[in-house]
Design a protein that fits this description.
By secondary structure, the chain is of the alpha/beta class. Strand 3 and strand 4 form a beta hairpin. Helices cover 40% and strands 17% of the residues. Helix 1 runs antiparallel to helix 4 and helix 6 crosses helix 8 (166-181). The chain has helices at 14-30, 54-59, 66-82, 86-102, 107-125, 141-153, 156-159, 166-181, 269-286, 300-308, 318-329, 382-395, and strands at 2-3, 6-7, 38-41, 48-51, 189-190, 195-201, 209-212, 214-217, 239-244, 291-294, 312-314, 333-334, 347-349, 351-357, 360-366, 373-379, 401-402. The protein is globular, with a radius of gyration of 26 Å. The strands form 6 sheets. Strands 9, 10, 11, 12 and 13 form a 5-stranded mixed β-sheet that branches. It is built from 12 helices and 17 strands. The relative contact order is 0.14.
């Protein structure tokens, strides 16, 4: 049924059923350790995605029908929250919907029955009698390694790992070491911010390794020129660091008091905001800060201003680095340019080292006795590397995990 350009379809229409069956077949063929690797190409000569990961697979599928848009959005939200079970969520939702369409029961009755059954399953999953629950002794390394090897080994084909389990065992050991390093002796939980991930193409999986500190990509640092920087250090030999989550690009709306003079020529609001940002930088320079790190963008004028005064600025850390850097340095994450900059706002690192891998430039932030480590994941090709990065990230705890 349609009117005034609006198409209305019932859930049991042929088009809706076709969409559901297509998603169901795709999820079923990819599910489990024996699932097939999917090859998706949206257009002729377009990018080709080779994956068995639900997040990457569903992210590149077309969403031309409202039903596929709804299901894929729900599945992606579920996978983002739990870092797993994307294929299972798609398989379960499409199977339930197709079964309800094929039954003679009313829609409301089917919906109520499904909701009741889901609640019964959740209640059973929290009981000790549930056979799906597996108790893992955090003090038993063989059990932890077995869990990690099972997760990583299930994606052996799409990650192009060796058949003799050498690569699987190597990665499992690295992930476990990074996880254990992130547990302080006097703490009861560990979070993902203690273990970061860095993907490097053009190397064998066996060259994957764990480094102490945070490894941040720095494309502005040239690979072919030796990196020489005289860091400003305090009496203890440490480098004082200021970490911003607020933008330093001059596009901030935090300076509401900035007003334009109508008689002024060639003066923009951005320029006036930059002047306010430079005043904040003067406070950092006076406090003998050696490195300014920003999650977002730093204006070129601000970077030049800092560089001329011996302060190194690194921008675009993004959400994947900023929390690890914050945890490493031990300072305050500055989310406002109006914040009062006291001595407790600054963090410290012991050194900043330039590292070159596969023609890419990185800076390694090092701090003594740090619990933060970076797992460098290597693979010869980009597509297997993307799958491997998602797989290894999924083995780390998405939320703080209690250790006792």
């Amino acid at each position: 049924m349609s009117f005034k350009g609006l198409n209305m379809q019932t859930i049991d229409s042929c088009e809706v059923i076709t969409v559901l069956e297509t998603l169901n077949k795709l999820a079923k063929s990819s599910y489990g350790p024996n699932g097939k690797v999917q090859v998706v190409q949206m257009a002729a000569e377009g990018h080709m995605t080779v994956t068995a990961q639900s997040g990457r697979l569903f992210g590149c599928l077309p969403r031309e029908h409202p039903v596929s848009t709804l299901i894929l959005a729900a599945v992606e939200a579920h996978a983002k929250l739990y870092d797993d079970f994307g294929l299972y969520a798609c398989l379960l939702s499409t199977e339930l919907t197709l079964d309800m369409i094929g039954t003679t029961l009313g829609r409301k009755l089917c919906s109520a029955a499904t909701e009741k059954l889901a609640q019964l399953c959740l209640d059973h999953a929290t009981t000790a009698e549930c056979g799906c629950r597996q108790r893992v002794d955090m003090a038993g390394l063989p059990q932890l390694l077995a869990v990690l090897e099972t997760v990583i080994g299930s994606k052996r084909r799409s990650c192009c790992l060796s058949d003799d389990d050498v690569d699987v065992k190597h990665l499992a050991v690295l992930v476990l070491r990074g996880f254990l390093h992130g547990i302080p002796a006097d703490a009861t939980c560990v979070s993902r911010a203690s273990l970061l991930f860095c993907a490097v193409a053009g190397k064998a999986v066996a060259e994957s390794h764990l480094v102490a500190g945070v490894l941040v990509e720095a494309p502005e640092v040239r690979v072919d020129v030796p990196f020489r920087c005289r860091w400003r250090r305090d009496g203890a030999g440490r480098i004082k660091v200021a970490v911003f989550s607020a933008s330093l690009a001059g596009d901030s709306d935090q300076f509401h008091s900035v007003q334009l003079d109508e008689s002024a020529q060639e003066v923009s609001k951005e320029r006036l905001v930059i002047q306010q940002v430079l005043k904040v930088m003067d406070v950092l320079i006076e406090a003998e800060v050696g490195v300014v790190l920003c999650q977002k963008v730093i204006h070129s004028q601000v970077k030049s201003y800092l560089q001329e005064r011996g302060v190194f600025a690194l921008e675009r850390l993004s959400i994947r680095y900023i929390h690890g850097v914050h945890r490493l340095t031990g300072g305050t994450l500055l989310s406002s340019l109006h914040a009062e900059l006291t001595a407790g706002c600054y963090g410290y690192v012991d050194d900043v080292v330039h590292v070159v891998m596969s023609g890419r430039s990185f800076l390694r932030l090092v701090a003594r006795n740090t619990r933060v480590h970076t797992l460098v994941i290597c693979s010869w090709q980009e597509e297997p590397l993307d799958d491997l990065k998602v797989t290894t990230r999924g083995t780390a705890p998405p939320r703080p995990v209690r250790t006792r």
